[in-house]
């Protein structure tokens, strides 16, 4: 007779009776796990009779274990007590927003990330979060990618990994290409929009991406994942873990390789990475050590494709043309690459000091070293600090050469958080960090077509930079009745030493010191168990980046930026629907504005503007239409303006500059409408088909809204060429997943993602260099075309 099958279901709540959505429930005997829904409910079906052990866990609470001798379907509920946060959760309690925080945020679980992880860079996995725009230099999401939140680029988006800053200390950008397949070692992510809560590292002017890596898994596992797709794209990943050994130890590891030829010509990527984590769990303490590394070698594609090439349909590669590395004979320099290795070391410690006090701290060290190599034709030797030489009666003033521009940097420091919770409705956190950065920038000439008096591996420049970054913050929450009051105060001090121009235009070592105070206050009103409204006010300050300092003198050096961020919103959650609406008004003083121009390594040129703002409304929600069908969507409508903006255009006819004055103009790269949609159908157990869409409205490449100076006309008749803008685009993907198990394999996962299923031709990023020639405004526009229809397929095995 066949064995009877039963179920175990229940609800997980806290001591106040509140449901804990997203809590984890593990069925130890069968190595099965689940997460609670928005009402805190969970369920396991198809269980044979027998003895079972269940463990319920939730961030910020003590885990709870229950056992049962199952002979019929049972209901087992859990009430979790507030507990010490572990070292791997310090980032959550110290720098993250909670469910009642007056902050706009989105949480992404490991399961949500895994569904979309076919090998593309991390920004692509955040594409369905509100107010996000993503870009790819290579066009297919592998290699150099970018992300903007509320129109702010990556240098304005704070990124932390386990509470440790990831943004580059000098450029303030985050280069996820340096951590290939980090997604496979991530447990969860919180994306905050606006200033958000106090965090370590660069100031958040557009938002924050708060990453938590691998956390405790009590049973051993082995996962193998392989993906293959268009443009020679391949991803191979293996994850291994011991589970909990002797009740105290665990070790987890990952090894990854990603390769792609890219959609753009020669925009290839060769990426490798590993992640190793070891932990010790004591009765009142946790110690975790993380070591992870990434290596990338990518062919340069950061100049984009000229507009006149894109518009020429007679050229076979008119959308994929890459001019970088072209040699005099028309061939291409094979080593026109970016080659960089980044190693990370983290030691995370947590200690419960008493029932009311707990401490978490981290030591970290990051070592980065690499270069980008490029071929230069007919380069003037004087530009490399050399005097022209005479060889055989000829004066060698110019020569073809290959150069490497190096970055060798060290970043290390300490982060900490002390949490005090004297009563259930009151808590305080004292946190902060002290970090140091040493960066050596230098260049070598490794080849010359003619001798030109250049010795082998000649070093033609060196710039040593140092930066100290200290911050301390205090944060408190107090709940009285249905009202929760929130306050967060941060002091940040920065010291930066760099090689730059002094008042006499001599290039000498200089320094700058900045002091910032970043207060934040807010209030949340709980309408009922499923609905709340909130409002907040926050101040953020942001220092200029390396290029802002080194490409200026003390007289022209840009000022630090200041942001006053006003937010208000409404959140709701129920069995059928969860979502929210958020209003924001971000008032900037001295914002450093993108002009659309690029220097020779793709960095944006920026200037202070006195008054500018972003104002808008964000909506996001998920509707469970039927048991099998759900719909998630986001939308952002915004206005992004600069007041009294002036821009100069070089007039090559007479050597003068033409001036444009606009009383109110759009900020570059700031679409007024962003929307996303994911319609998901689960027709049978383990199966899913999702139709995913994204719409981005028109964006300008500079801050003039295509306005030309009086008296000048636009050159050409092709609107694509004359307009300094990115056209709006609507792109759709299809994702299919099927998961099943066999006796010896816990899970077999099959996946297929068809990107840009309707083969839309569009550009997601670009740059412009307008000037005046022959009495006309001439636009030199460069764009980054994104791949037409392409696919990635995956097979994963879990043991």
UniProtKB/TrEMBL annotation:
The keyword Transmembrane applies. GO terms for cellular component: cell outer membrane. It is a multi-pass membrane protein. Residues 99-207 form the TonB-dependent receptor plug domain. InterPro entries: Beta-barrel_TonB (IPR000531), Beta-barrel_TonB_sf (IPR036942), CarboxyPept-like_regulatory (IPR008969), Plug_dom (IPR012910), Plug_dom_sf (IPR037066), TonB-dep_rcpt-like (IPR039426). Residues 284-757 form the TonB-dependent receptor-like beta-barrel domain. It holds the Pfam family Plug. GO terms for molecular function: siderophore uptake transmembrane transporter activity. Its main location: membrane. Signal peptide: none annotated. It comes from the Bacteria. SUPFAM superfamilies: Carboxypeptidase regulatory domain-like, Porins. It is found in: Cell outer membrane. Keywords: Cell outer membrane, Ion transport, Iron, Iron transport, Membrane, Receptor, Signal, TonB box, Transmembrane, Transmembrane beta strand, Transport. Belongs to the TonB-dependent receptor family. This is TonB-dependent receptor.
